[in-house]
Each structure stands twice: as structure tokens, then as C-alpha cells.
Design goal:
315 residues, globular, homodimer, 6-stranded mixed β-sheet
């Protein structure tokens, strides 16, 4: 249904349209990046598992993450809020406090917005950023690229399980996992290092490793292999959930880490410059566009659990 | 509750923050304008009075109108859609068709967006534009300025009455009024003429003439007088609703015409250059900040109807 728009002649200087983490356009002085994403009560969150402040944090952070996945730096945010009439002013203030925490940390100005009535809480944010040079497009993976990810995976979806269980039995691990779900931390400086050092494609991990890698492979017309034992499963998820944590790391989603593809020497240089773990987890190959294969230590295809990897997807 | 944000130190090059029709920031090559606004089902529209295509038109048009009210030109739009799971694909295609009609007419690229599930239809749009030089701020009215408006007022709210009545008895007038409600036409070229010719303040008429003029007067620390007999009541509203049409023109809202304040010679030059009616309706004066007085032909204060002018506000 977006084909009419995708196929529409462009009137201004669009560099990248619908279909990537963000869109981009050229201004007289630089390339700007724009993105918008929304969180809807009952769909993406409920107030028994997130505070208003968490919600504010996450609504802005996930948009900044999209800018980061393009290798850009966020600059300005605009917020479109839908609120039920009975919403307390203090709740909205908390929401903004959460957004301000992220805004300050990533040098972003919340410079506009509007509030309207709505049957449930809806927070739609648009972020404008600037490209630090080249855009990290999904479609730019090359055969022979290594696939790497920042940080640990599976933490956010394990956190959602902890939150939904209503129990808080495992102490510190549970706290870490809940935070992974409620307060994703966009990889802005890491994205810029990726551009600097010559990574090819990148995407932020919102839908889950396999799904998002599938988007990169599809857009690049290539296949991908993931070595399950190389996937950096979140240590607290491993503690809390044992073997099941691998499935969450592969398909859980909402970790907002960056996945990128690059030559081996580029990955080495990236590792030397960023302040978070970077794990090489597989390879980009010629083959069926979009096909992602998970293999074990012996390189043999790993069967998904009976319910399928997708079953572990959060939200 | 926005004071924390308004008072927050700015990190980037914000020219105009929260509190005007749009925000603005400086890039290396130009001043950009950003705005976001949402339409929510059951709050701003229902599908018995608007088609999906009308909804698409209006959602983009009201954001372009905010750019127009700053004297800017729209460039890029990003769309955040919330849709109930049962929504038909063809409905969404119609929504985009309505947006594309406006986008093409105003040389705007719809270059990004996202779709998520929601309990009711919500369309949040962010538009980025460029300033043609100076920004037409709400706070820039000066004592002695004339107050002028483009086009006719009261058409949109009269149209809403026609649509809500479910009757369609008055033929052409009814059709014109319904269109005024469903398909507001942003005054983009007119806004740019206002900048060129040296108008001081401007605002688009979304909340209603008296409310929006109140915003300008408040922001400028001045008072305003409106001569009721000079207000350009929409001819079709007059036909359909007689005397009541004045109240709709004063308070109905959603006409998305531009109200501006300027010296008399500026107003004359604007009249000579734009292709729509421009009516001088009153004066900006020193006095209680934000106070708006409506006077009759003899300059005597006009009493509002028993229910108050606000009673006539639509939506």
C-alpha cells in the first residue's frame, strides 16, 4: 500500500525514502535524517510494567536509535501526545522527565509538539538528526561481510518476562533485565564509529536479531548465516532463563543494539574504538535474498524450538 | 508541565522552541521549520463525517498549515499511523491517496513513517519545512498593527454542522461547507508573501478566530479589538445558518486561514499580491496582554450569545 508513495516522483532532495530505519534528505549544508515511531498503550506497553517516566525514556530512545542505525547524530525531537482526559498533570510531567533524561544524554532538543485527547496513551515522536557523512543503509551489505552486533541480546525480552511474571525473585539479574526492557540505550556514538571506519549496512535490533537481519539480507539481495554459539546472549538473561535465553537473544527484540555488516578489518577497528562489546556472529553470503540460517558449532543448521523462533518475540 | 522543557538549556541551534505554530532551527544553509500534529478517531473525526481520503488530506494539510503560518515552505513529511487490526488495506491506501493529493499540491515529499496497532485510528504527521527568510512569530505583533485574515471564516464549523445533521438539503452551499471542513487548504504561498512584504505576527486559525487572536495578543503582550461587521463570514455559512454564522466565524475553528498583523501599507501590498480575499478586521493595541474585545459598527463592545462565543467551537 506504500507503493504509491515509494513510486511517487520526488519533489525535493530526498536521499533515502520509505523502507529503512529512517529517511534522509539533503539540505544546503548537510544530509539530515528524519524518523518517527509511536508507542501505544495496550499495544507496546501497559502501566503495570512501565512508569510514565520509563515510557518517556523509551519513546524518545527508540527514535534516537533509528538515527543511530543510520550512523547519524540526533538533533531535534518533536512529540505528539495523545492522552485520555483523566490523565494527571503529574503523569505527563513524568513522561517529559523521562524524555528529558534521554534528550540530555544524547544532546537532543525537544523543540516542539502537541497534545490531544485520545482513548489510550499514545506517544508519537519524530526525531531529526544529521548524518556524519555516509548513511548506513540496510541495502548495503556485501557478500563476504561479517555480521556483528553491539552489546548483549535477549535482555529486553527477558526483562519483559520478568515484568509480566509479577515476581521479582532473582534480585540483581531481574533488575538489570527490567531496565533492559524499560530503558533501551541507543548506540549513537557506536553508529558514528561504524560510519567512520567503513561498515557497510546497519540496522537497530527492534524486531529481533533474526527478523532484523532478514531485513538487511532482503534489502541487500543476499543471504546470511548466524552462528548460534557466537550470539552474545545477555548474561542476566542466561542466569534467569537458562537455555531459553538463546531463543530470546535470536528473536526477542527490543534490545536496540546495532547489527552491522563489514569487512573483517573494519570490525577489528570498530572493536578498538567503541566502549561496548562487539561480537561477530555470522556471515553475509550470496544466496536466496533474505534467507537467514542459524547454525550450531559444527556449522550444521540449528532447528528452531517446536514453537519456532518467532514465538519468542516480545510485545 | 512543559516548563521543564521550555526552560531547558538548548544544545543545538534552536531558533524557536515550544509555543508557536511550529519550531525552527538553524542548519548550515538555512532555517528549518518543524511541526507535528495528530488526528485521533472519536476526538477529531469520525468516519461517518469523513472518508479515509479526507482524513489523509486533513492530517497532512493541518501540519502544512502550521509551516505556512511561520511563513515557510513545506518540504518533507513523516507519518506515524495507528490502526486497529481490522483495518482494510484499501482504507489505508485511500488515506495515503488523500495525503498524496496534498503533498503533490504543496511540493512535499512523504519520505518516511511507521504503522502500528492502536485501538482507534490515529494519524500523527510531522512536517519539516524551510523558512523563506524571517519567521512569522506569534509574539511579534506591534501596537498599531492592523489585524487581517485570509479567505472566509466559519465555513469549516458550518460544514461540521451540516455533516453532523446528516441532512444534505441545501445543495451547493452544503457541499462547499462540507469541503471546508474536510479539506482545509493551507495558505502556503500567502504565508510567504506575508514574510516578503513585512507582516509582523501570524497564526493559522485552527482553534477559532478569537482564541487564536488571543494567542497572538498574549504572546505579544498586547490587546486586540475585532470589528464584528468586518469579519469575512463564509458566504455559504451565511446562506445556510443566517445570523449564527457570525458566531461560527468568530469561534468555530478549523478554517486554517491565516491571521496576521501588519502596518496598513504592508496589508495593502499583501492584498495586491495574494489570490485570495484579505480582510482587515481590527487593531492591535497596548492593553491587557491577551485581551480580545469584539465591537459592533459603532465601536461598542458586542455581547457574546448567552452560551458564549466558545460554545460555537467545533470538535
Amino acid at each position: 500500500m506504500l507503493s504509491g508513495i515509494v513510486g511517487m516522483p520526488l519533489r525535493n532532495d530526498v536521499v533515502l525514502g520509505i523502507g529503512d530505519d529512517a529517511s534522509a534528505w539533503r539540505t544546503p549544508g548537510l544530509i539530515e535524517i528524519g524518523t518517527t515511531d509511536a508507542l501505544v498503550e495496550g499495544v507496546h506497553f501497559t502501566f503495570d510494567i512501565a512508569t510514565w517516566r520509563d515510557l518517556g525514556w523509551k519513546a524518545l530512545a527508540i527514535n534516537i536509535s533509528d538515527v543511530a542505525a543510520m550512523g547519524g547524530r540526533p538533533l531535534y525531537a518533536m512529540v505528539s501526545l495523545g492522552l485520555p482526559p483523566e490523565t494527571e498533570v503529574e503523569s505527563v510531567a513524568d513522561l517529559y522527565r523521562g524524555m528529558l533524561e534521554v534528550a540530555q544524554r544524547f544532546d537532543t532538543d525537544i523543540c516542539g509538539g502537541n497534545i490531544s485527547s485520545a482513548p489510550v496513551v499514545m506517544v508519537s515522536v519524530a526525531v531529526i538528526g544529521e548524518s556524519s557523512g555516509r548513511l548506513l543503509e540496510r541495502s548495503a551489505a556485501l557478500p563476504g561481510d561479517l555480521i556483528a552486533v553491539t552489546g548483549y541480546l535477549g535482555g529486553a525480552s527477558a526483562g519483559l518476562r520478568v515484568l509480566r511474571s509479577g515476581q521479582d525473585t532473582r534480585g540483581e539479574a531481574a533488575a538489570v533485565l527490567k531496565k533492559a526492557h524499560q530503558r533501551p540505550y541507543p548506540r549513537v556514538s557506536e553508529g558514528q564509529v561504524l560510519v567512520d571506519e567503513g561498515a557497510n549496512a546497519a540496522i537497530d535490533l527492534s524486531d529481533g536479531l533474526l527478523a532484523d537481519l532478514g531485513h538487511v539480507a532482503q534489502a541487500s539481495g543476499l543471504a546470511a548465516t548466524v552462528r548460534a554459539h557466537s550470539v552474545p546472549v545477555h548474561p542476566a538473561a542466561k542466569d534467569a532463563l537458562g537455555d531459553e535465553s538463546l531463543a530470546l537473544a535470536l528473536s526477542g527484540g527490543e534490545d536496540y543494539e546495532l547489527l552491522f555488516t563489514a569487512r573483517a578489518d573494519v570490525v577489528d577497528r570498530v572493536k578498538g574504538r567503541v566502549h561496548c562489546p562487539v561480537a561477530v556472529i555470522g556471515d553475509i553470503l550470496s544466496g536466496d535474498a533474505g534467507k537467514v540460517t542459524v547454525v550450531d558449532e559444527n556449522g550444521l543448521p540449528l532447528e528452531p524450538p517446536e514453537t519456532g523462533w518467532e514465538h519468542f518475540r516480545s510485545a
